[in-house]
Amino acid sequence: MTGFISNIQRFTIHDGPGIRLTVFFQGCPLSCWWCHNPECIPDFINSNGFTVKEFNEKQLLGEIRKELLFMDESGGGVTFSGGEPLKQPDFLKNMLIACREEEIHTVVDTSGLAAQKIFDSLMDFPDLFLFDLKIIEDILHRKYTGVSNRLILKNLETLNNHNKNVIIRVPLVPGITDTDENISNIIHLLSGLPNLRKINLLPYHAMAESKYIRLNIPYKLSGIKTTDEVRDNKIKEIFLRAGFDTSLGG
Amino acid sequence: MNERINNLRENSLSAEPVMSHQRAQLLTEFYQSQDAKGHSIPVMRALAFKYIMEHKKICVMRGELIVGERGEFPKSTPTYPEIVLHSLDDLEKLDKRKKQFFKVNEETRKIYREKIIPYWEGRTIRDKMFRELSDEWKEAYEAGVFTEFLEQRAPGHTVIGKDSFKKGFLDIKEEIALAISRLDFVNDPLALDKKEELIAMDISADAIMAFAQRHAKKIEMIMAEEKDDERLKELREMHQNCLNVPAHAPQTFWEALQHYWFIHQGVVTELNPWDSFNPGRLDQHLYPFYTREIENGTLTKERAKELLMAFWVKFNNHPAPPKMGVTLKESSTYTDFSLINVGGVKEDGSDAVNELSYLILDVIEEMRLLQPSSMVQLSKKNPDRFIKRALKIVKTGFGQPSIFNTDSIIQEMLRQGKRIEDARNGGASGCVETGAFGNESYILTGYFNIPKILELTLFNGVDPRTGKTLGLKTGNPSDFKSFEELMTAFERQLNHFIDIKIQGNNLIEQIWAKYLPAPFLSTLINDCIPNGKDYNAGGARYNTNYIQGVGLGSITDELTAIKYHIFDRKSFSFDTLIAALKANFDDYEEIEEMLLNHTPKFGNDDDYADDQTRRVFELYFKAIDSRPNTKGGVYRINLLPTTSHIYFGSVIGAMPDGRKAKEPLSEGISPVQGADRNGPTSVLKSAAKIDHLRTGGTLLNQKFTPSFLSDNRGITSVAQLIRTYFKMDGHHIQFNVVTAQTLRDAQAKPEKYRDLIVRVAGYSDYFVDLTEELQNEIIRRTEHENAV
Q: Which range, of A129-143, A200-214, B37-51, B175-189, averages the lowest pLDDT?
């Protein structure tokens, strides 16, 4: 079968351990205001230099294999990101199995939004999940991402219950996800998920704005201030004090 | 750095390069005197060297710890009229040109007009060469098919070995006497020639010792006036240093540095050899002195660092001697390519990184000087902390140190038939050239314009720039029925021009050996003394010649485009392509766009393109490797450009990779500027598809913005990137860490960016000293990187 891929990036060093190759899947059920890859949101795109490429497993594996020496040297591997990789579950599963057979370390970088059945069928294959946790209050989650977080939180619980290797990634969008209330909500939620102890805080930056201009779609966060280092470090302290293994920055 | 070093450094940075007539005048005086008459050429040359060393002005500056200047003061730069004679017009150009200028005062012009020019006109080694060289050679040279390294500068390209730090010139004189006593006048028909050469070496040993003694005298005079007790104590020690070295083997860390520096002065005054001279494996040479003295308590780490810093300033005081014409174009820089090696392995093959390696890295970082150049040798046996420490300096963005693969360098030398100890004691010098330090003469004979060969093939042997027929008639390309037919024609043209180049080299090499031997340099490189043979005549243990291939990325993309569009896809015909090239793509924008953006390119780990790289590499290797030179050695290949890729681009019209007429070629083995679109891992994969072990050096440039190395994760990842490239036998990699915006600012306000150093190609240079085209090229490279 084939998968729809927006982009393949090599020498990525912020999407899991070591030197990695990151595969950006096309299509995402969320539409976060701060999305860095807005071109990956629609299922298909062909405008202003953004196109979708179709790969079968063999072709994609061929691209991954080209990086093996770098992966071996650095303890790296491949990261499936997007878009939302779980939105193409069969292709993703085939790729995860193929990589496992070749002892290639895999990371799935996900919003967590997928039908429970799909999620359960996939969760045993990646070596590591990078799981986005954005907003706990569902009304706000709907406002800023376009969808409810009900399934997301359910899937996160599943990962906890099965003791999977997970790093929770929290984007710190000023005034939206970095509010005192949201941070304490996150800590409260995670206090009930004792197996999830790794947090990666991602400072906000507006580097994607030019993409929105290229795509001719409005950037709803235009003009908001970029990362506030003091604030971000304060949040890091809060997580550290709450007993989490916390890092700041991608 | 302390105030003294800061002052010395500032003096060096602000000193203006000035042309000095001192050496030329002394040399001419000597040649005109009775003392020059009646000697063999080697002896006459040695006497001339001695005359200069006994009469040139001695410079000892306030606060200096290491003494010796080539000219009268920092950046006062001599000329070498026995090699190339500057006309009054040249002097005017040197004085007035914006880049790589040398100020020429009235006195110098007068002495040139009245003494130097009348004596040397028509008698230089360059005149002799151009009288002998064939028309075929001259036409190819003028068309920019190749350059000639030895038309304005002497062979050299070499580096001191460990033995020179263990003996003085009195010891060397004994070695010479022994060699003379062993001459066999019964069985050796060349015994007299050898004797003359050995006598010349002996005279040149006396010359360097006299030079040191004169410094001792000068320091004595300064001591008489000195009021400051602290400085007086220092001067006393410096005085003693000059009495001890280089006559005797150095005993202290300070003496070792002064010892080398006198030797350096000798080499660069005797002639103007390429890559000046080079202390090579400095951390290895100095380590025994350092540990002994640290243990004795006669040296502190701080003092060692200060001495090294004072040593660094001396290199920066010595710009490359004035270059003109094609030599300037192929090497547009003040840098004289003294490349200090740090790290690597010891003679027994074990990890050579020591405390001094790290101390030298500290010095490199703090000094931030154009010269000396510096590099780290990275072996699989060296610890990660070593490469990470080096990358923290790379991050500061002045292009140093560059990073070399010790394990490849050793294998390259073993393939060339060198002893394993000699290979392990070696390294890289100049830009990226592999050498057995202290044992080898490895001469770069000139750059070779590989894409020009394709252009000549596409135009059936005619140079479209001039309309002259230069090459073979290999057929009209529109008649080629397959890509293979084109490749056959290309190979024939390539071999034809390599033959012309080698024919010229054979002649030039013998002219140097016969007319301008280098007896002083010969005392320093093993086995010139026991062989009784000059360095320039094949006296060294190993004698290697190189022809440096330029434009590997460009030629790959050009051949790939032809294969892809004309033979595989049949997008357009050969006739259309040639018409588009002739028109420089005017009215052929659609074809230009296809060539630029819809064609496989080198640097993307795409075998379709990279197969052509391998092919060109094999053809180039086959054309050159193992052919004999005139010194008992053979030819090898390497792939580096210095700045010749700009010059070579300027003599080529539009090409099938979509490159417009006169634009620069790709440099080293890097992809065409902007052609790599998959990031650094793909570039390294593509670059590793040629067999680096069958070269004597390749050059790969990678650009990063500072942000890439801003944290430990970034540094670790880049270190892993390098380790992986080296696992694939990559020879060398270097980094430019700057943003395009910084560079544009520097272009607009050069006065504010005097100290901005960028990696150009195998060396670093001050950005503001680069030509505008080169500046633009570096901005384009950087922009591309920022966008990815």
A: A200-214
Residue B462 has phi, psi (to 5 degrees) of -95, 140
Enumerate the domain spans of chain A: 2-248
Q: Would you state the pLDDT for residue A95?
A: 98
Note the helical H segments in B279-354.
Answer: 282-296, 301-316, 325-330
Model pTM?
0.94
Q: Identify each DSSP E strand in chain A by its residue range.
A: 2-12, 20-25, 46-47, 50-51, 53-56, 77-82, 105-110, 128-132, 166-172, 198-203, 245-248
Edge-first strand order for the sheet with B373-378 is: B339-343, B373-378, B402-405, B732-737, B701-704
| Interface membership of A103 toward B (CB under 8 Å) | no
Residue type for B339, please?
Answer: L
CA-angle at B569, arms to B568 and B573, nearest 5°: 95
Q: Indicate yes or no: CB of B727 within 8 angstroms of CB of A69.
A: yes
In this prediction, the answer to ipTM > 0.90 reads yes
What residue of A is the nearest CA neighbor of B681?
A11
Average pLDDT for chain A: 94
What burial letters (b/e) apply to B402-438, b meaning 16+ CB within 10 Å?
A: bbbbbbbbbbbbebbebeeebbbbbbbbbbbbbbbbb
Helix (H) or strand (E) holding B637: strand B634-638
pLDDT tier at B786, thresholds 50, 70, 90: very low
Are B339 and B278 contacting, i.e. CB atoms less than 8 angstroms apart? yes
What share of chain B has pLDDT > 70, as a percent?
97
B150-169 per-position pLDDT tens digit: 999 999 999 999 999 999 99
**Residue of B685, B717, B785 for testing the chain A interface, max A β-carbons within 10 Å:** B717
Is residue A146 less than 8 Å (CB to CB) from chain B? no
Count of residues making up chain B: 788
The distance of Cα B594 from the centroid of its chain, to the nearest Å, equals 38
Superfamily of A2-248 according to CATH: Aldolase class I (3.20.20.70)
Element containing residue B180 per DSSP (H, E):
helix B169-181
Among the partner-chain residues A66, A69, A74, the one whose CB lies closest to the CB of B717 is A74
Six-digit token pair at B581? Answer: 């090239």
Residues B308-363 have pLDDT tens digits of 999 999 999 999 999 999 999 988 999 999 999 999 999 999 999 999 999 999 99
Chain B residues touching residue A10 (CB < 8 angstroms): 678-682
Nearest to A73 among B605, B713, B724 (CB): B724
Distance from CA of B694 to the nearest CA of A (A): 22
pLDDT, one tens digit per residue, over B729-760 is 999 999 877 778 888 888 888 877 766 767 66
Query: Stretch B562-567: mean pLDDT, rounded?
Result: 98
CA atoms within 13 A on the CB side of B619: 24
pLDDT, position B787: 44
Q: Which tokens go with A128?
A: 């590591």
**Spatial distance between the Cα atoms of B556 and B558, rounded to a whole number of angstroms:** 5
Q: Which residues in chain A come in under a pLDDT of 70?
A: 206-207, 226, 250
What pLDDT score was predicted for residue B714?
A: 87
**Size of the A and B interface in Cβ pairs below 8 Å:** 42
Of A11, A14, A249, the CB nearest to B681: A11
- Say whether B681 and A10 touch across the interface (CB within 8 A): yes
* Cβ pair B124, B84 in contact under 8 A: yes
Which candidate in B724, B733, B735, B786 is best for mutational testing of the A interface (most A CBs within 10 A)?
B724
